[in-house]
């Protein structure tokens, strides 16, 4: 459960920032482009952080120690 708390906490923050971007972008000819750009940027940053974080917490392959005599750094 402790693994999912930072992920969910930052998801709430990202969704809150997206809501602010939706509500507070000034009206104009490029309002939709600005909203979409901000929301896409926030979503991409969140996904990159989440994937990196979860890959470090739950690696696909656990590190192994090598006890060979000639293996230095391998």
Keyword list:
74 residues; transmembrane helix; transmembrane; mainly alpha; elongated
Brief rundown of the structure:
It contains two helices and no strands. With 74 residues, it is mainly α. The chain has one domain (4-57).
> How far is it from the N-terminal to the C-terminal residue, by CA?
34 Å
For the CA atoms, what is the radius of gyration?
20 Å
Number of helices: 2
User: How many structural domains in the coordinates?
Assistant: 1
**Strand count, sense and closure of the main sheet?**
none
Roughly what percent helix? Answer: 55-70%
Order of helices and strands: HH
Pfam family, one: ATP_synt_H
InterPro entries: ATPase_V0-cplx_e1/e2_su
GO molecular function: proton-transporting ATPase activity, rotational mechanism
Membrane topology: Multi-pass membrane protein
Give an account of the 3D structure.
The protein has 74 residues and is mostly helical. The chain has one domain. The protein has 2 helices and no strands. α1 packs antiparallel against α2. The longest helix is centred in the middle third of the chain and has 27 residues. The model has no long low-confidence stretch (mean pLDDT 88).
């Amino acid at each position: 459960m402790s693994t999912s708390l930072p992920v969910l906490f930052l998801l709430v923050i990202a969704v809150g920032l997206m809501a602010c971007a939706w509500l507070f972008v000034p009206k104009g000819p490029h309002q939709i482009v600005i909203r979409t750009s901000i929301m896409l940027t926030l979503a991409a940053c969140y996904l990159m952080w989440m994937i990196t974080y979860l890959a470090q917490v739950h690696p696909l392959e656990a590190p192994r120690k090598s006890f060979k005599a000639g293996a230095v750094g391998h």
